[in-house]
Design goal:
single chain, 128 residues, alpha/beta, 4 helices, 27% helix, globular
Length: 128
């Protein structure tokens, strides 16, 4: 994948790992971020760091993530270049590749009251 292929002005990436015991607590958030991103003109991707396709498929099946765009970074090269050590980690990028905002850790999302929380993921730091 290359930012040159992204049509949207912003890109929201969530770095995850199937070995992260807490990551899946955000599975509903990922589904809602994906749906909301489309309406806001933001590209959305889950990026699994350090796992292989088999482990990612197991994660996707177990948490009903089929249909979400999941990229695999088995060498952790992308994660390392962006200083992603803790997962889940959420990064909002400009189309030029500038990191506009970063959120670390589990987000404790509640679907019944989460619309305000969803909105903050699409704004650069200092705008929300």
């Amino acid at each position: 994948m290359s930012l040159a292929n992204v049509k949207e002005e912003r890109l929201l990436c969530v770095f995850i790992s199937s070995r992260c015991a807490g990551c899946t607590r955000d599975a509903d958030l990922w589904k809602d971020l994906n749906a909301t991103a489309r309406t806001r003109g933001v590209a959305f991707y889950l990026i699994d760091i350090g796992d292989d396709a088999t482990e990612v498929e197991k994660l996707s099946s177990a948490y009903n993530l089929q249909g979400l765009p999941i990229l695999i970074d088995p060498t952790k090269r992308i994660g390392k270049s962006l200083s992603v050590g803790l997962v889940p980690q959420y990064l909002l990028f400009s189309r030029r590749g500038e990191v506009l905002h970063r959120w670390d850790g589990i987000q404790h999302y509640d679907r019944t009251t989460g619309s305000e929380q969803l909105a903050r993921f699409f704004e650069p730091a200092g705008k929300n």
